[in-house]
Amino acid sequence: MSLLCKKALHRCQLTWLLLAAAAAAMLLIRLVRRRRRRPKPRQGKLRVAFAHPDLGIGGAERLVVDAALGLRGRGHDVTIYTARHDPRRCFDETRDGTLRVVVAGDWLPKRILGRCYALCASVRMVAVALRAARDGPDVVVVDQVATAVPVARAACAAPVVFYCHYPDKLLCVNRQNPLTRLYRAPLDWGEETCTGLADVVLVNSRFTAGVFRRAFPRLAVAPEVLYPPLSLDAEVAEAPRDAALLLSINRFERKKNLGLAVEALALLPPRVRLVLAGGYDPDLPENVEHARELEELAARLGVADRVTQRRSVSGDEKARLLARCACLLYTRGRGVPCKRHRRGASRCNTGRRTSTSASCRSRRCTRARPSSPWTRAGRASPSSTA
């Protein structure tokens, strides 16, 4: 390399360094000014901001809504900031005005050429965090996407709580492709680094806490367990019991392994029926494709007339299904909820919260493959006479 090129490169590096220093100085001045003029909470009342990527009807969204309702019931001022809120696919509390919902960053892409979901989610959450900081919250609760943690801390100088449902780096299991590894490397590093910047890290179970420590060995932070809450005030739906109805409540995603329930149904008597209920977003290609795959699988196994898909069910409809069903199916290897609504449960014997299921304590959990153990478990269920 010529001397002229070296000098030009050195000048370029120096210019970037000066720009970075100037940006850091401006950010520091802004933080000091914001900290000075931010009004103090009134008589213990806090302004709490929840930052969530997509306020749909999944388990993570239910947790955010319940936490927001709990804080609101204690007299705090709560606002949920999200990159997407579809009134056709959300919980009632976020639609009827019970909770204040602010949408920011929805104009940003959710994917690039059908890929890069994690990258786009990170960018969208940065926009959400910046919008939340404009209202000067006293506490920011970041859900799922850790990229928003340092942005929230820098933009509003408020304590930040990060809720980790499961490390995102572990959800990408197919890394044989060198391009995938190259794409995931900065995302994984950023997830660990940003998570470590939170003032408090919460996880949904002791199992997730152990996975968290193994996934992020560089972090000295000790995650605290905050279990998803239950609504004790809700009325239990009354419906006639159906001894031949099996129920699965999961999003229409391949990782939920819903095909296992369909395969098991094909080995059960013809009077047994299956309802696949869960979150469904027509804008997500995987939801559309997997729903079609499940229909094709049911047709191929000859049980299409015994399988019903209930997409994006409401809370009331979910309660009615839970009241009617004889057995609740958990087809995923991990991520099993604690609550079973006093129904028999057949689930895979891998993953978290097996200790909270009576059937698992009595060694009645079944493995994911083949379907025959699932069939035996369904026949042996005390609440099913199939």
TrEMBL record:
Reactions performed catalytically: a beta-D-Man-(1->4)-beta-D-GlcNAc-(1->4)-alpha-D-GlcNAc-diphospho-di-trans,poly-cis-dolichol + GDP-alpha-D-mannose = an alpha-D-Man-(1->3)-beta-D-Man-(1->4)-beta-D-GlcNAc-(1->4)-alpha-D-GlcNAc-diphospho-di-trans,poly-cis-dolichol + GDP + H(+); an alpha-D-Man-(1->3)-beta-D-Man-(1->4)-beta-D-GlcNAc-(1->4)-alpha-D-GlcNAc-diphospho-di-trans,poly-cis-dolichol + GDP-alpha-D-mannose = an alpha-D-Man-(1->3)-[alpha-D-Man-(1->6)]-beta-D-Man-(1->4)-beta-D-GlcNAc-(1->4)-alpha-D-GlcNAc-diphospho-di-trans,poly-cis-dolichol + GDP + H(+)
Domain Glycosyltransferase subfamily 4-like N-terminal intervals: 57-217
Membrane topology reported for the UniProt record: Single-pass membrane protein
Localization per record: Endoplasmic reticulum membrane
Keywords, sorted A to Z: Endoplasmic reticulum, Glycosyltransferase, Membrane, Transferase, Transmembrane, Transmembrane helix
Top-rank taxon: Eukaryota
EC number: 2.4.1.132, 2.4.1.257
Gene3D superfamilies listed in its UniProt record: Glycogen Phosphorylase B
Biological or metabolic pathway of the protein: Protein modification; protein glycosylation
GO cellular component: endoplasmic reticulum membrane
Spans annotated as Disordered: 341-386
SUPFAM superfamilies found in the cross-reference section: UDP-Glycosyltransferase/glycogen phosphorylase (SSF53756)
Pfam families assigned: Glyco_transf_4 (PF13439), Glycos_transf_1 (PF00534)
Residue ranges annotated for the Glycosyl transferase family domain, each copy included: 238-331
Coiled coil feature spans: none
An MF annotation (GO) of this entry: GDP-Man:Man(1)GlcNAc(2)-PP-Dol alpha-1,3-mannosyltransferase activity
Transmembrane segments: 14-32
Function: Mannosylates Man(2)GlcNAc(2)-dolichol diphosphate and Man(1)GlcNAc(2)-dolichol diphosphate to form Man(3)GlcNAc(2)-dolichol diphosphate.
Family stated for the protein in its record: Belongs to the glycosyltransferase group 1 family.
Name under which the protein is recorded: Alpha-1,3/1,6-mannosyltransferase ALG2
Protein source organism: Pelagomonas calceolata
